[in-house]
Design a protein that fits this description.
The chain is built from no helices and 17 strands. It is mostly beta strands. The N and C termini lie far apart (73 Å). Bound molecules: calcium ion (3 copies).
Length: 222
Amino acid sequence: MKMKALYAAVVLATLTIAAAASASVLISSQHVNANSCFDTDGGDNVLVAGSINATLKDFSLGGTDHCIDQYTVGEYACSNDVPGTPQNYAAFGSTDCRTVLTNGICQAGRCVGGLADLTVTSFRATSANGSNSSNVSVTFEVTVKNIGINSAPQTYTSVNVIGGGFASIATPGLAPNALTTVTTGMNLVRGRTYNATATADWTNLVSESNENNNARTITFTA
Ligand SMILES: [Ca+2]
Ligand SMILES: [Ca+2]
Ligand SMILES: [Ca+2]
Protein backbone atom coordinates (compact mmCIF):
# COMPACT_ATOMS: atom_id res chain seq x y z
CA MET A 1 0.00 0.00 0.00
CA LYS A 2 1.02 3.59 -0.63
CA MET A 3 1.40 5.87 2.37
CA LYS A 4 -0.24 9.25 2.45
CA ALA A 5 0.09 11.93 5.11
CA LEU A 6 -3.07 12.83 6.92
CA TYR A 7 -1.97 16.43 7.38
CA ALA A 8 -3.17 17.30 3.90
CA ALA A 9 -6.69 16.20 4.73
CA VAL A 10 -9.68 18.41 4.04
CA VAL A 11 -10.95 20.35 7.01
CA LEU A 12 -14.53 19.50 7.87
CA ALA A 13 -15.97 21.91 10.38
CA THR A 14 -18.83 19.56 11.19
CA LEU A 15 -16.59 16.98 12.82
CA THR A 16 -15.67 17.54 16.43
CA ILE A 17 -13.39 15.45 18.54
CA ALA A 18 -14.84 14.80 21.94
CA ALA A 19 -14.09 12.04 24.38
CA ALA A 20 -13.61 11.38 28.04
CA ALA A 21 -10.12 12.72 28.49
CA SER A 22 -10.37 15.94 26.56
CA ALA A 23 -12.02 17.87 23.76
CA SER A 24 -9.41 18.64 21.19
CA VAL A 25 -9.96 21.46 18.74
CA LEU A 26 -10.28 20.03 15.25
CA ILE A 27 -7.51 20.92 12.83
CA SER A 28 -8.28 18.54 9.98
CA SER A 29 -10.20 15.41 9.14
CA GLN A 30 -10.30 12.90 6.36
CA HIS A 31 -12.99 10.52 5.17
CA VAL A 32 -11.72 6.95 5.22
CA ASN A 33 -12.98 3.53 4.22
CA ALA A 34 -15.80 2.22 6.37
CA ASN A 35 -14.61 0.78 9.68
CA SER A 36 -10.98 1.05 8.63
CA CYS A 37 -9.78 3.51 11.27
CA PHE A 38 -8.09 2.22 14.41
CA ASP A 39 -6.70 4.31 17.27
CA THR A 40 -4.29 2.79 19.78
CA ASP A 41 -5.36 5.17 22.56
CA GLY A 42 -9.06 4.68 22.01
CA GLY A 43 -10.06 8.16 20.88
CA ASP A 44 -9.37 11.76 21.79
CA ASN A 45 -7.13 10.78 24.65
CA VAL A 46 -4.45 13.38 25.31
CA LEU A 47 -3.11 11.58 28.38
CA VAL A 48 -1.76 8.74 26.21
CA ALA A 49 0.43 9.05 23.10
CA GLY A 50 -1.28 6.96 20.45
CA SER A 51 -1.47 6.58 16.72
CA ILE A 52 -4.15 5.89 14.17
CA ASN A 53 -4.23 3.83 11.03
CA ALA A 54 -6.91 3.79 8.34
CA THR A 55 -7.35 3.18 4.65
CA LEU A 56 -8.82 5.33 1.90
CA LYS A 57 -9.38 3.27 -1.23
CA ASP A 58 -5.99 1.60 -1.55
CA PHE A 59 -4.06 4.21 0.41
CA SER A 60 -2.90 3.70 3.97
CA LEU A 61 -3.35 6.73 6.22
CA GLY A 62 -1.86 7.25 9.61
CA GLY A 63 -0.65 9.67 12.19
CA THR A 64 1.05 9.63 15.58
CA ASP A 65 0.24 11.98 18.44
CA HIS A 66 2.97 14.55 18.90
CA CYS A 67 3.75 17.83 20.58
CA ILE A 68 2.97 20.88 18.46
CA ASP A 69 4.72 23.11 20.98
CA GLN A 70 5.70 23.03 24.64
CA TYR A 71 2.07 23.16 25.79
CA THR A 72 0.06 21.76 22.88
CA VAL A 73 -0.49 18.15 21.95
CA GLY A 74 -1.54 17.18 18.43
CA GLU A 75 -4.05 14.33 18.83
CA TYR A 76 -5.28 11.82 16.27
CA ALA A 77 -8.61 10.06 16.61
CA CYS A 78 -11.09 8.01 14.60
CA SER A 79 -14.75 8.95 14.49
CA ASN A 80 -15.42 5.26 15.17
CA ASP A 81 -14.07 5.97 18.67
CA VAL A 82 -15.91 9.23 19.19
CA PRO A 83 -19.64 9.01 19.88
CA GLY A 84 -21.81 11.55 18.10
CA THR A 85 -19.47 12.27 15.22
CA PRO A 86 -19.84 11.23 11.58
CA GLN A 87 -18.59 7.70 11.07
CA ASN A 88 -15.53 6.73 9.09
CA TYR A 89 -13.44 9.83 9.52
CA ALA A 90 -9.89 10.16 10.73
CA ALA A 91 -9.31 13.40 12.56
CA PHE A 92 -6.45 15.49 13.87
CA GLY A 93 -6.88 18.08 16.58
CA SER A 94 -5.03 19.96 19.26
CA THR A 95 -5.36 20.43 23.01
CA ASP A 96 -3.60 22.92 25.27
CA CYS A 97 -2.36 20.68 28.09
CA ARG A 98 -2.74 23.55 30.58
CA THR A 99 -6.50 23.16 30.20
CA VAL A 100 -6.30 19.48 31.09
CA LEU A 101 -3.74 19.25 33.90
CA THR A 102 -2.35 21.64 36.48
CA ASN A 103 0.88 23.04 35.09
CA GLY A 104 0.34 20.75 32.11
CA ILE A 105 2.86 20.54 29.30
CA CYS A 106 3.18 18.36 26.21
CA GLN A 107 5.86 15.70 26.45
CA ALA A 108 6.40 12.85 23.99
CA GLY A 109 3.00 13.24 22.37
CA ARG A 110 0.89 13.44 25.51
CA CYS A 111 -0.06 15.85 28.27
CA VAL A 112 1.78 15.55 31.56
CA GLY A 113 1.32 17.67 34.64
CA GLY A 114 4.33 18.86 36.44
CA LEU A 115 6.43 21.52 37.98
CA ALA A 116 9.90 22.90 37.62
CA ASP A 117 12.55 21.75 40.10
CA LEU A 118 15.54 24.02 40.54
CA THR A 119 18.65 22.74 42.26
CA VAL A 120 22.24 23.92 42.73
CA THR A 121 24.47 21.36 41.02
CA SER A 122 27.79 23.16 41.60
CA PHE A 123 29.00 25.92 43.93
CA ARG A 124 32.60 27.13 43.84
CA ALA A 125 34.57 29.92 45.50
CA THR A 126 37.79 31.15 43.88
CA SER A 127 40.12 33.69 45.53
CA ALA A 128 41.98 36.19 43.37
CA ASN A 129 45.75 35.92 43.15
CA GLY A 130 48.40 38.60 43.36
CA SER A 131 47.30 40.84 46.18
CA ASN A 132 49.15 41.17 49.46
CA SER A 133 46.43 43.12 51.23
CA SER A 134 44.50 41.65 54.15
CA ASN A 135 41.40 41.42 51.99
CA VAL A 136 40.94 39.28 48.93
CA SER A 137 38.38 39.30 46.13
CA VAL A 138 36.48 36.01 46.01
CA THR A 139 34.40 34.98 43.01
CA PHE A 140 31.45 32.63 43.54
CA GLU A 141 30.13 30.49 40.68
CA VAL A 142 26.76 28.83 41.15
CA THR A 143 25.34 26.38 38.63
CA VAL A 144 21.56 26.11 38.78
CA LYS A 145 19.79 23.30 36.94
CA ASN A 146 16.10 22.68 36.32
CA ILE A 147 15.63 18.95 36.93
CA GLY A 148 11.82 19.23 36.80
CA ILE A 149 9.54 18.55 33.87
CA ASN A 150 8.24 22.08 33.47
CA SER A 151 10.01 25.33 32.67
CA ALA A 152 11.05 27.84 35.32
CA PRO A 153 10.90 31.60 34.74
CA GLN A 154 13.66 33.97 35.81
CA THR A 155 14.53 33.52 39.47
CA TYR A 156 17.09 34.80 41.98
CA THR A 157 19.93 32.74 43.38
CA SER A 158 21.45 33.76 46.70
CA VAL A 159 25.00 33.41 47.96
CA ASN A 160 25.15 33.76 51.74
CA VAL A 161 28.64 33.83 53.24
CA ILE A 162 28.41 33.66 57.03
CA GLY A 163 30.36 36.58 58.43
CA GLY A 164 31.15 37.69 54.90
CA GLY A 165 28.16 38.96 52.96
CA PHE A 166 25.04 38.20 50.98
CA ALA A 167 24.28 38.47 47.26
CA SER A 168 21.13 37.92 45.20
CA ILE A 169 21.85 37.07 41.56
CA ALA A 170 19.29 37.26 38.75
CA THR A 171 19.12 33.82 37.14
CA PRO A 172 17.62 33.26 33.68
CA GLY A 173 14.56 31.13 33.03
CA LEU A 174 15.38 27.47 32.50
CA ALA A 175 13.69 24.85 30.35
CA PRO A 176 13.57 21.28 31.71
CA ASN A 177 17.11 19.86 31.92
CA ALA A 178 18.67 23.26 31.20
CA LEU A 179 21.30 24.74 33.46
CA THR A 180 23.06 28.07 33.86
CA THR A 181 26.02 29.35 35.85
CA VAL A 182 25.73 32.70 37.63
CA THR A 183 28.54 34.55 39.41
CA THR A 184 29.05 37.16 42.09
CA GLY A 185 32.03 38.54 43.98
CA MET A 186 32.81 39.59 47.55
CA ASN A 187 35.79 41.06 49.37
CA LEU A 188 36.67 38.75 52.25
CA VAL A 189 39.46 38.42 54.81
CA ARG A 190 42.46 36.66 53.35
CA GLY A 191 43.20 33.36 55.04
CA ARG A 192 39.89 33.18 56.91
CA THR A 193 37.74 30.08 56.54
CA TYR A 194 34.06 30.66 55.70
CA ASN A 195 30.87 28.66 55.32
CA ALA A 196 28.77 29.72 52.35
CA THR A 197 25.41 28.56 51.05
CA ALA A 198 24.02 29.03 47.55
CA THR A 199 20.24 28.76 47.23
CA ALA A 200 18.25 28.54 44.00
CA ASP A 201 15.02 30.56 43.90
CA TRP A 202 15.63 31.96 47.36
CA THR A 203 12.72 34.42 46.98
CA ASN A 204 10.42 31.47 46.17
CA LEU A 205 9.07 32.75 42.86
CA VAL A 206 8.54 29.25 41.47
CA SER A 207 6.43 26.38 42.74
CA GLU A 208 8.70 23.35 42.55
CA SER A 209 8.14 19.62 42.78
CA ASN A 210 10.93 19.56 45.40
CA GLU A 211 11.53 22.66 47.51
CA ASN A 212 14.13 20.91 49.68
CA ASN A 213 16.97 20.47 47.19
CA ASN A 214 17.65 24.12 46.42
CA ALA A 215 20.64 24.80 48.68
CA ARG A 216 24.28 23.74 48.61
CA THR A 217 26.83 24.67 51.30
CA ILE A 218 30.60 24.78 51.00
CA THR A 219 33.48 25.62 53.32
CA PHE A 220 36.41 27.52 51.83
CA THR A 221 39.40 29.59 52.86
CA ALA A 222 39.61 33.00 51.24
CA1 LIG B 1 -3.47 10.60 22.43
CA1 LIG C 1 -6.08 9.12 19.82
CA1 LIG D 1 14.04 22.46 43.92
